[in-house]
Give the backbone structure.
Amino acid sequence: MRRCGDVQLADLGEPQGREAGFGRPVVLVTAQLVLDQHPSVVHVVPLTSTIRGYHSEVTIEPESDNGLDVLSAAQCQHIRAIAGGRLAEPIGHVGAQALTQIRETLADLLDL
């Protein structure tokens, strides 16, 4: 079962302009209440190893729980809705603190 905060590899396809694309890790951010209904489309935030220091990014340290090998940034400005079939099995979970930071950043970006 998918969990909000899971880190999964995803095929985001060919990017246009500066959008995130190709195969990369993402953080699943769809609410757990929705995930429990097994939706065909989910919301993800792409991860990058290029740390730019933008206010719209959340830095995530690599650790065994999240499955990341390098310091990464959750690119909240690139939130995407993708088909569940684009996701591989989870490689880890970002944990409560990082997930809260990502959610707060998304709320700021979307003026919620």
User: Anything to note?
Assistant: The radius of gyration is 13 Å. The first helix runs from residue 32 to 35.
